[in-house]
Amino acid sequence: MSDPHRGLRGHSKLRLYLWIYGTALVFIFISILLIISFGFINNEPDKSCCPAAFSFFSLGLLSLFFYMNMMFLRRKFPINWIMSCSMAVVFGLGTASMLCMQTAGHVILLALEVIVMMGLLLLLGYWLPPKCHPLLYIALTSFILAVIAFFLCKIISDHTDENHDKVAVWIARFVLWTAICPLLLFQSQVINGYWGNESPYLDIPLCSILLLIDFLACYAFLDAVDDIEIAYDRLFRSETVGLMARVGRSGI
Q1: Is-above-0.90 flag for pTM?
Q2: Tens digits of per-residue pLDDT, 29-61?
Q3: Count of other CB atoms within 10 angstroms of residue 235
Q4: Which SS3 state, helix, strand or coil, does residue 151 take?
Q5: N or C: which end of the chain has fewer CB atoms below 10 A?
Q6: CA distance 246 to 213
Q7: Buried b (16+ CB within 10 A) or exposed e, 132-149
Q8: What pLDDT was estimated at residue 43?
Q9: Got the DSSP string for 15-41?
Q10: pLDDT tens per residue across span 188-213
């Protein structure tokens, strides 16, 4: 286990986790409700509302940038909580308006997948071997995960030669979790104080907002897997492969 003198201790860690992850789960629950309910108020449920999404995300990112750079706001109760809750709603509305109409079952399944995978990666970041630098641990863990994902993709592709759609689904998921792994490990280490930082008690709302943004990004990516399947299928059609081969030969 990690050196007890590194990071936070015992009951302080538990209390911190309950606040940060509990608040993040509340924000995620609100976002899920917004994603489900937005389809009922959208005049064209089969289409996304790009102007609204752009407006919400722009407002949310500007507010987040302003909030992160104003220390007196981050440490002033209840302004910090009011701003964080407002940003959570804005990011949730931005994601909801960016997606087409979502059924409750589809949203819940994707949300559970994202929450479980994020929880596993955050748990990996909680454990730090003794005398191991946090950055080295992130690099090694991310590399191991990437190697495992590569071999799993190879095995799946070898056994599903006739079903490119299924291969695309798994490859998209492996790419997502391999790419997001270093970020979640780093965030978990910061929460645990492994970078020599102060206890993030006063920045609990900010930590929860960043975890919410991770969740929404992963959810939006997984929701676009169907589009990735279509692109993958078109790429590997025989006529497409033949055309690429002819272009390659003509270029040579």
Answers
A1: no
A2: 999 998 888 766 665 555 666 777 888 889 999
A3: 12
A4: helix
A5: C
A6: 44
A7: eebeebbeebbeebbeeb
A8: 55
A9: HHHHHHHHHHHHHHHHHHHHHHHHHHH
A10: 988 888 887 776 777 888 899 999 99
**Which phi and psi (to 5°) does residue 75 adopt?**
-110, 10
Share of the chain above pLDDT 90, in %: 24
Q: Which two tokens stand for residue 46?
A: 């089969």
Alpha helices in the chain (DSSP H): 10-41, 50-68, 71-74, 79-98, 104-126, 134-159, 164-192, 204-223, 225-235, 238-251
Cα angle 115, 223, 159; round to 5 = 90
211 DSSP 8-state letter: H
User: How do residues 133-170 score in pLDDT, each as one tens digit?
Assistant: 889 999 999 999 888 888 887 777 666 655 555 667 77
Tokens 């975890």, located at residue:
211
Domains of the chain by residue range: 10-235
Which residues, 6 or more positions from 152, have their beta carbon under 8 angstroms from its beta carbon? 170, 174
Measured CA distances, 9 to 14, 193, 194 (Å): 9, 10, 12
What does the alpha-carbon distance between residue 132 and residue 114 come to, in Å, rounded to a whole number? 28
CA-CA-CA-CA torsion sign (137, 142, 145, 151)? negative
Q: How many CB atoms lie within 10 A of CB 9?
A: 12
Cα angle for residues 14, 18, 19 (degrees, 5° grid): 120
